[in-house]
């Protein structure tokens, strides 16, 4: 208890020290705005997409800094031009710098939460930004329970967004002020030809598969993952039909699981190399998660997304093959129970009933027309 009180006191002293220090900071005619968030790669892309819309919407000079907790964020988005994003920093450092900002917004429970606002500066420089602040302050009061209990309330957060006609990409713009309609943020790659040569691959002539997601429970396998046996059967079906098409298995680290006749490069690619593989693959087959968001931002190309406990309506991109066995469960069960990621809410057993019922044969039938169409285009 004493330790907790001491930490609170240190934070208060640090915060006030930051504010006093920045009182003497020369304020120019440019607003300083900070955004802060947590989450995985997909969350970062979605938030940066929203922040870019914020920059374009504001119409007054602004310096935007982004604070985050993802180690790979700088590799994910190359901001060398600095056209809209001023700086990217570790979220832990915000407490030492908070006082310099006119506005600090945290994406908490995936919605904007106003942490700090210089009312005088904001009202003087942008009336419409002041209206933005007031509307989201009201939103926070109305949905205080939702914001305070994240991530346990993420399922409710999803439902609220769907009620308002939003999906995961447009959710951070829940009030529709910024006009976010889709993922328009694009991310770049480097040395594409060198990377493809390293892995002995040609553009649009290989398939990437992935079986990994972020999980709150690191000790149990996530219910968002399709069974390994299903991957093995699917890879066999693909290779029987397309013998010359490599199947590349990507992920953070190797396991002893048998995926069949695939090239296992898990743990062997840098983040930059992974982006190149996702960009130039003919097809990505993966669970709902960060890889799918990355591919959409890299090339907009089709992914086959294997849905389990999360909502297709909320997380699915138009144009992707979003596969789910709705006859098993018509609704999602995200955060219906505390252990929803490792125990099926319907069966009470490990493994999602929907994903277990999604057969390799049915997945192959869905992707077969795409592979045959693209194969014809390549041969032409």
* N-to-C series of helices and strands: HEHEHEEEHHHHHEHEEHEHEHEHH
CATH superfamily of the largest domain: Glycogen Phosphorylase B
Rg from alpha-carbon coordinates: 23 Å
Main sheet makeup: 6 strands, parallel
Tally of helical segments: 14
Instruction: Report the helical percentage.
Output: 25-40%
Output the CATH class name of the largest domain.
Alpha Beta
CATH topology of the largest domain: Rossmann fold
> Which class do the helix and strand fractions yield?
alpha/beta
| Beta-strand residue fraction | 5-15%
Low-confidence stretches: 20-24
**Quick check: average pLDDT?**
88
Distance between the termini: 71 Å
How many beta-strand segments? Answer: 11
Q: Tell me the number of structural domains.
A: 2
Assembly state: single chain
CATH-level-2 architecture of the largest domain: 3-Layer(aba) Sandwich
Structure description:
By secondary structure, the chain is α/β, with parallel strands linked by helices. It has 14 helices and 11 strands. It has 2 domains: 172 residues, no CATH class; 188 residues, Glycogen Phosphorylase B (Rossmann fold, 3-Layer(aba) Sandwich). The strands form 2 sheets. The protein has a 6-stranded parallel β-sheet, sandwiched between helices. It has a 5-stranded mixed β-sheet with strand order 3-2-1-4-5. It is globular, with a radius of gyration of 23 Å. The chain starts with a helix and ends with a helix.
């Amino acid at each position: 208890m004493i330790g907790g009180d001491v930490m609170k006191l240190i934070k208060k002293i640090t915060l006030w020290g930051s504010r006093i220090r920045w009182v003497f900071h020369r304020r120019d005619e440019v607003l300083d705005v900070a955004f802060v968030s947590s989450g995985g790669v997909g969350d970062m892309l979605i938030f940066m997409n929203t922040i870019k819309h914020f920059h374009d919407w504001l119409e007054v000079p602004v310096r935007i800094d982004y604070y985050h907790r993802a180690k790979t964020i700088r590799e994910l988005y190359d901001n060398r031009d600095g056209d809209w994003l001023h700086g990217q920093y570790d979220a832990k450092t915000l407490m030492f710098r908070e006082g310099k900002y006119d506005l600090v917004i945290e994406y908490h429970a995936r919605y904007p939460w106003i942490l700090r606002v210089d009312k005088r500066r904001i009202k003087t420089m942008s009336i419409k930004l002041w209206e933005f602040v007031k509307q989201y302050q009201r939103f926070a009061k109305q949905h205080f329970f939702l914001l305070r209990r994240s991530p346990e309330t993420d399922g409710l957060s999803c439902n609220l967004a769907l009620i308002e006609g939003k999906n995961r990409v447009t959710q951070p713009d829940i009030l529709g002020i910024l006009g976010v309609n889709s993922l328009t943020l694009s991310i770049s790659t480097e040395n594409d030809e060198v990377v493809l040569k390293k892995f002995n691959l040609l553009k649009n002539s290989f398939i990437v598969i992935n079986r990994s997601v972020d999980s709150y429970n690191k000790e149990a396998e996530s219910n968002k993952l399709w069974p390994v046996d299903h991957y093995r059967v699917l890879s066999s079906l693909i290779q029987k039909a397309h013998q010359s098409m490599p199947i590349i298995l990507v992920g953070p680290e190797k396991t002893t699981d048998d995926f069949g006749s695939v090239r296992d490069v898990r743990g062997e690619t840098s983040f930059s190399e992974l982006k190149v593989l996702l960009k130039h693959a003919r097809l990505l087959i993966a669970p709902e998660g960060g890889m799918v968001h990355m591919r959409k931002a890299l090339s907009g190309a089709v992914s086959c997304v294997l849905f389990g406990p999360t909502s297709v309506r909320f997380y699915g991109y138009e144009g992707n093959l979003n596969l789910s066995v709705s006859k098993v469960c018509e609704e999602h069960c995200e955060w219906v129970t505390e252990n929803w990621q490792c125990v099926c809410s319907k069966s009470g057993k490990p493994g999602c009933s929907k994903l277990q019922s999604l057969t390799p044969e049915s997945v192959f039938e869905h992707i077969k027309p795409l592979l045959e169409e693209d194969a014809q285009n390549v041969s032409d």
